[in-house]
Amino acid sequence: MTLHSSMILPLIDAVHRAGARIMADWQKPQMVHEKGDKSPKTDTDDAAEAIVVPTILSLSDLPIIAEEAFEKGLRPSVAPDNSFWLVDALDGTRDFIKGGPDFSVNIALIENGQPVLGVIHAPVTGDTWYAHEGAGAFHLKGGITNVIRMRVPDTGALAMLAGKRAADPVVLEPFIGAHTMAERGQRSSSIKFCLLAQGLWDLYPRLGETYEWDTAAGDAILREAVGVVLDLHTGKPLAYGKADPAFLNTGFVAGHEAVFSGPSASVR
Q1: CB contact at 8 A, 151 and 183
Q2: What CATH number corresponds to the domain at position 54?
Q3: From first to last of its 268 residues, what are the pLDDT tens digits of the chain?
Q4: What are the C-alpha distances in Å from 202 to residues 107, 122, 167?
Q5: Strands 210-211, 40-42: pairing kind
Q6: Are residues 135 and 174 in the same domain?
Q7: Residue 81 is assigned to a structural domain of this protein
Q8: Listed residue (220, 228, 226) closest to 204, CA to CA
Q9: Which residues contact 253 (CB under 8 A, 6 or more apart)?
């Protein structure tokens, strides 16, 4: 058993317990606070993080960059060649506040600037997705675990999770060449990465900024499901532990690695 694989079950237990705590508050009146970046948070965000972080500390002495603690000024120093954890214990807070179903609990381990382990749990549906480097990606629900893998997309009939601006040919054609969108949907939170990994959708482009803790767990899962998440500006896989002190990502596009390596693609 590898070190990464031995961490999976405790982390799954942690995201399930955090998910249960979140569900205790779901669709109930929330006290909403505004963070420094103008995004909302609730006391439930803090409560979920307080469940997840101690489990990670019991498994590892690596630095933890957790969204709510980070906002409060607890910001361990990490470098691109450091190993560290990224935690977003309630991703999709806006949808949670609205009473919607699209929020998740996220944990990722970063090594040498890349995500090597990811666990995501969707409390409303009970779906859990996880992966660690070299072992594949998995979906767990109702006690049943299945291997997941992106479907090989048809560029003449792509199914994309994104808004209209992100679907603009100016955004996507440098990456996938000529293509046709056959279906477009919208979901919130890192669940989008997982739906791609399960082979239910083909592309997830994002124009706006995100934080590293928003993408790392889904990125880890997608990589093990033959997917890739490319920076829109560099054309390279997203990097983690960047020099940006806010841990910001710029825009990205996620999809099957074959889409970005075909003869029509201009970005490598």
Answers
A1: no
A2: 3.30.540.10
A3: 466 888 999 999 999 999 999 999 999 999 999 998 889 999 999 999 999 999 999 999 999 999 999 999 998 888 778 899 999 999 999 999 999 999 999 999 999 999 999 999 999 999 999 999 999 999 999 999 999 999 988 877 888 887 656 666 666 777 777 777 767 777 778 999 999 999 999 999 988 889 999 999 999 999 999 999 999 888 899 999 987 888 999 899 999 988 886 544 433 3
A4: 23, 20, 12
A5: unpaired
A6: no
A7: yes
A8: 228
A9: 171, 172, 175, 203, 204, 205, 206, 229, 230, 232
- Domain identity same for 74 and 118: yes
Give the pTM.
Answer: 0.93
Residues 128 and 165 in one domain: no
- How far apart (Å, rounded) are the C-alpha atoms in residues 148 and 129? 9
**Among 148, 170, 202, residue at a domain's last position:** 148
The tens digit of pLDDT for each residue in 211-245 reads 999 999 999 999 999 999 999 888 899 999 987 88
Tokens of 209: 């900024």
Domain span at residue 99 reads: 3-148
Q: Which of the listed residues 90, 120, 148 is the one where a domain comes to its end?
A: 148
Q: Does residue 167 lie in a domain region?
A: yes
Give the sheet arrangement for strand 64-66, strand by strand. 64-66, 84-91, 104-111, 114-122, 127-132, 136-141, 144-148
Same domain, yes or no: 139 and 166: no
CB 76 within 8 Å of CB 99: no
Distance CA 251, CA 244 (A): 15
Tally of domains within the chain: 2
Same-domain check for residues 115 and 198: no
Q: Which residue has the tokens 């990464």?
A: 4
Q: How far apart are CA 175 and CA 209, in angstroms?
A: 19
135 DSSP 8-state letter: T
Is residue 138 classed exposed, middle or buried when 0-12, 13-18 and 19+ CB atoms within 10 A define those classes? buried
